[in-house]
């Protein structure tokens, strides 16, 4: 716990209000989790029906994260300036437009434009929730609530696996995204009814000019160790998104020959494991009494798992299932986020967290875009990409996480009670 956290007046809601608030924030976050991972299972079908190369698929998936990352600093200012409720409602409307545009797209440009809207609309859900948690709950519960949000919210990614595969096979992927637009509308209505602006935070926002709000970003960037944590954020979530969000589907199709249903069922395994892992990693900072040990442990295990798959190439199915379960469970993002939050005073928490989230989503864009280019370097064989292409991508990601770990080792850690 930082000195700023101990000095900050927090306003805990009653148990019933807390349950409704957290449930509502999780609901809108579930939609964004679905959208960010919704390409992998239908990627071969999109490539076949619309005519997309590996580079196109990489861009299609990664443009969501690129837009998401670019939006983070404006979102941080908006959260501190206008409050989470307004930001969430505007972003929900943009998500609905993105889903409908994706359903109607007939070209790669149309699909990419729709994914851009999805990324922009999804950009505030997690950070708005964390800003509310930071203000409304006790500081030593922040990482646990982050793990809860991340864990239950990741159920949305489950719907991007077997359920999306089933829906795409039953009613078509276009119609499936129309359904998602309707679900997003319902989640937006729930936000409008349940989420209220904190009067204390609203009063503080009214005293800050736009210039001061922008200057706050510079203050955040100059905070010691921000660069080291930013690099760790670049690598942390991008490993999961690289496999489950993009190349897991093509890998299972091209190397193992699995169809849409089998791909969805197998990708459900790491998605489920991520949910369980988030609950385990959420309170890890309290278990260790520090932030860095659980982050370094999770990152080190991620490097090991990526290296194992790169070396094994195409392990037997039982071993692949075991690998996906372990790999998916390495959801060590909550203690990393809590570490970042501890560096900032309360009035900069929104901007500080969104800066790190910019790193998280920027890292996914970087790895997915680069991996698409790498895979395109290998000639396609019988309509699929060779095993060597996937092995190179997994090994490159392992090296990336290892470099981030080396930088994170020197990060400052505020003293905790």
Give a quick precis of the structure.
This protein is mainly alpha-helical. It is 79% helix and 0% strand.
Layout of helices and strands, plus pairs?
Elements: H1 3-7, H2 15-36, H3 43-51, H4 54-82, H5 84-104, H6 108-122, H7 125-136, H8 142-153, H9 155-158, H10 162-170, H11 173-194, H12 199-206, H13 210-222, H14 226-256, H15 260-281, H16 284-288, H17 292-312, H18 317-328, H19 333-341, H20 349-376, H21 387-408
- Discrete helix count: 21
| CATH fold group | Growth Hormone, Chain: A
User: What amount of the residues lies in strands?
Assistant: under 5%
Query: What is the total number of structural domains?
Result: 1
User: What separation lies between the terminal Cα atoms?
Assistant: 6 Å
Q: Indicate the mean pLDDT.
A: 85
Counting helices, strands and paired strands, the structural category is: mainly alpha
In CATH terms, the superfamily is: MFS general substrate transporter like domains
Q: Please mark out the parts with pLDDT under 50 across 5 or more consecutive residues, or reply none.
A: 1-11
Describe the overall structure:
- The protein has 417 residues and is an all-alpha fold.
- It has a single domain, classed as MFS general substrate transporter like domains (Growth Hormone, Chain: A, Up-down Bundle).
- Helix content is 79%, strand content 0%.
- It has 21 helices and no strands.
- The chain has helices at residues 3-7, 15-36, 43-51, 54-82, 84-104, 108-122, 125-136, 142-153, 155-158, 162-170, 173-194, 199-206, 210-222, 226-256, 260-281, 284-288, 292-312, 317-328, 333-341, 349-376, 387-408.
């Amino acid at each position: 716990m930082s000195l700023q956290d101990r000095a900050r007046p927090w306003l805990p809601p009653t148990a019933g209000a807390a349950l409704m608030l957290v449930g509502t924030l999780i609901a809108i976050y579930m939609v964004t989790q679905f959208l960010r991972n919704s390409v992998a299972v239908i990627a071969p079908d999109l490539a076949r029906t619309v005519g997309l190369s590996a580079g196109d698929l990489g861009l299609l998936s990664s443009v969501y994260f690129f837009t998401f990352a670019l939006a983070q600093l404006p979102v941080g200012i908006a959260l501190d300036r206008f409050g989470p409720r307004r930001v969430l409602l505007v972003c929900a409307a943009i998500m609905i437009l993105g889903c409908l545009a994706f359903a109607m797209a007939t070209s790669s440009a149309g699909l990419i434009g729709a994914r851009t809207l999805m990324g922009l609309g999804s950009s505030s859900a997690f950070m708005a929730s964390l800003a509310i948690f930071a203000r409304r709950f006790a500081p030593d519960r922040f990482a646990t609530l982050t793990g809860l949000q991340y864990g239950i919210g990741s159920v949305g990614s489950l719907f991007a696996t077997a359920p999306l595969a089933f829906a795409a096979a039953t009613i078509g992927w276009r119609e499936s995204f129309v359904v998602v637009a309707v679900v997003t509308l319902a989640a937006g209505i729930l936000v409008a009814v349940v989420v209220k602006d904190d009067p204390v935070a609203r009063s503080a926002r009214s005293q800050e000019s736009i210039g001061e709000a922008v200057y706050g970003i510079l203050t955040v960037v100059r905070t010691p160790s921000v660069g080291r944590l930013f690099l760790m954020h670049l690598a942390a979530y991008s490993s999961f998104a690289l496999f489950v969000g993009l190349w897991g589907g093509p890998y299972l199709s091209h190397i193992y020959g699995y169809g849409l249903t089998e791909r969805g069922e197998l990708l459900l395994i790491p998605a489920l494991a991520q949910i369980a892992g988030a609950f385990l990693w959420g309170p890890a900072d309290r278990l260790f009494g520090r932030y860095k040990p659980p982050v370094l442990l999770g990152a080190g295990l991620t490097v090991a798992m990526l290296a194992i798959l790169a070396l094994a190439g195409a392990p037997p199915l039982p071993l692949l299932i075991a690998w996906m379960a372990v790999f998916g469970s390495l959801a060590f993002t909550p203690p990393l986020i809590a570490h970042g939050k501890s560096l900032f005073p309360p009035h900069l928490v929104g901007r500080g967290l969104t800066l790190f989230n910019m790193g998280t989503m920027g890292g996914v864009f970087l790895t997915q875009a680069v991996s698409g280019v790498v895979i395109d370097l290998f000639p396609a064989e019988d309509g699929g990409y060779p095993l060597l292409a996937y092995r190179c991508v997994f090994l490159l990601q392992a090296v990336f996480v290892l470099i981030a770990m080396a930088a994170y080792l020197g990060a400052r850690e505020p003293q905790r009670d």
